[in-house]
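User: C-alpha cells in, sequence out, please.
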C-alpha cells in the first residue's frame, strides 16, 4: 500500500486521470456481458509463435474475453496450424496480431531518465538518443520502449532493441512473411519484454462506437438521476432540519415558561404558608416581653430570616441582674429554642447590671415543620 501511494503521489494529474479512466473502463467491462465487453475492448487477439526443440508452440490470447490457450504443431505446418487455431475459436486471421518469441540474448535493454518537461516528446527524443549514444543504425534495428513516472518527478524510460536480421531469420525458419509480424517477445518469462514492429491504426467499428456512446449516456443518465435524487433528499432533509429547529426552540420556550410558572407557584405557596404559620416580629416581641424577668430589660431586638424557615433567629441585647439564667428561660419558651449567649457577660458600671447578648432560634409550628421537610 505504501509503494502504491508513493507511485500515485509521483504521478502527474494527467496520468492520474488516465489511470482512473482505465480502472473505470475495466470495472465497467466486468459488469457487461462477455460479448458486449469484447466488442468494446480496445485490445486485439494475438498469436505468439515460439520455435522449440520439439516443434512450434502457438499461444493464442484475447484480452477482450480473457482467453489464453497454447498448442504445439510441427515446424513445417506453422501457417496451417495457426489458421486452424484462429478459425477454431471464431476469429478472423486479419484481426489477429502475429508475433514471434526470440531468445533473450537477442534483445538489448537500456534505461534512461528524462526531465519532466520532455514528457510530451518522448516518441521523438528516445529514438534520437538511441542513435546518438549507441552504434546502432535505424535501418538495422527494431526498438520499443515504456515510460513511467520516477519518484523525483522525472520520466523513467526503459528501451529494448533487437536487430532486424534476428527477426528475419526466425521468420524464414518458420516460413512466415516478415511483413505480417507485428511484435516480438524475448525469453520464456511471461513478463518478457515486447517490441512492436509496426503500429497499425485500428479503425473503430460503427457498432463499437454506438455501443460505447450508449453505455456512456446510460452512465451519465444514471449519474444524473442519482445526483437529482440526492439533491431532492438533501433539500427535504434541510427542510426537516429547519422545522425541527423551530419546533425545538418553541419546545424550549414552553418548557422555560412551565418552569417559571412552577417556581412562581412554589414561591407563592411558600409565602402563604410562612405568612400563616411562621411567627412574626410581633409574636417574637410579645413572647420576649412575657418571659423576660423584671430585673432585665432589652436595648435591642433583632429578627433575622435565614435561607429557609428553620434558619430564622432572634438576637436580644440588654441588661440583667442574672444574665446567665436567661438562657434556660428562653429555652423553656414555646417559641424559642437553642438559646445561647453570643458574647461574654460584662458588668456595666453605669446601669449596675450585667450586659448580655443572647441569640435563639425561632421554633417552627408542627405543620410548618412537615412542610419544610
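Assistant: Sequence out:
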Amino acid at each position: 500500500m505504501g509503494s502504491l501511494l508513493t507511485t500515485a503521489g509521483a504521478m502527474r494529474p494527467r496520468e492520474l486521470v488516465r489511470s482512473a479512466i482505465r480502472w473505470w473502463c475495466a470495472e465497467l467491462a466486468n459488469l457487461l456481458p462477455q460479448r458486449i465487453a469484447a466488442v468494446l475492448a480496445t485490445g486485439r487477439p494475438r498469436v505468439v509463435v515460439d520455435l522449440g526443440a520439439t516443434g512450434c508452440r502457438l499461444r493464442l490470447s484475447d484480452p477482450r474475453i480473457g482467453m489464453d490457450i497454447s498448442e504445439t504443431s510441427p515446424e513445417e505446418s506453422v501457417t496451417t496450424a495457426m489458421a486452424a487455431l484462429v478459425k477454431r475459436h471464431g476469429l478472423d486471421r486479419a484481426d489477429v496480431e502475429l508475433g514471434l518469441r526470440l531468445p533473450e540474448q537477442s534483445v538489448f535493454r537500456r534505461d534512461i531518465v528524462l526531465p519532466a518537461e520532455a514528457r510530451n516528446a518522448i516518441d521523438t527524443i528516445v529514438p534520437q538518443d538511441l542513435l546518438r549514444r549507441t552504434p546502432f543504425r535505424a535501418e538495422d534495428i527494431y526498438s520499443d520502449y515504456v515510460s513511467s513516472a520516477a519518484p523525483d518527478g522525472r520520466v523513467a524510460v526503459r528501451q529494448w532493441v533487437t536487430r532486424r536480421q534476428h527477426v528475419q531469420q526466425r521468420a524464414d525458419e518458420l516460413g512466415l512473411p516478415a511483413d505480417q509480424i507485428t511484435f516480438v517477445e524475448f525469453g520464456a518469462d511471461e513478463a518478457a519484454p515486447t517490441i512492436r514492429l509496426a503500429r497499425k491504426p485500428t479503425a473503430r467499428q460503427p457498432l463499437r462506437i454506438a455501443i460505447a456512446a450508449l453505455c456512456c449516456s446510460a452512465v451519465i443518465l444514471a449519474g444524473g438521476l442519482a445526483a437529482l435524487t440526492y439533491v431532492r433528499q438533501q433539500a427535504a432533509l434541510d427542510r426537516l432540519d429547519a422545522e425541527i429547529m423551530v419546533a425545538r426552540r418553541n419546545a424550549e420556550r414552553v418548557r422555560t415558561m412551565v418552569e417559571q410558572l412552577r417556581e412562581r407557584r412554589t414561591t407563592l405557596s411558600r409565602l402563604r404558608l410562612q405568612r400563616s404559620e411562621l411567627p412574626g416580629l410581633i409574636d417574637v416581641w410579645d413572647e420576649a416581653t412575657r418571659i423576660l424577668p423584671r430585673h432585665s430589660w432589652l436595648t435591642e431586638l433583632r429578627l433575622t430570616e435565614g435561607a429557609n424557615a428553620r434558619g430564622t433567629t432572634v438576637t436580644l441585647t440588654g441588661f440583667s441582674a442574672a444574665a446567665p439564667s436567661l438562657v434556660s428561660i428562653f429555652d423553656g419558651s414555646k417559641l424559642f429554642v437553642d438559646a445561647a449567649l453570643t458574647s461574654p457577660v460584662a458588668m456595666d458600671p453605669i446601669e449596675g447590671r450585667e450586659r448580655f447578648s443572647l441569640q435563639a432560634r425561632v421554633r417552627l409550628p408542627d405543620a410548618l415543620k412537615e412542610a419544610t421537610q
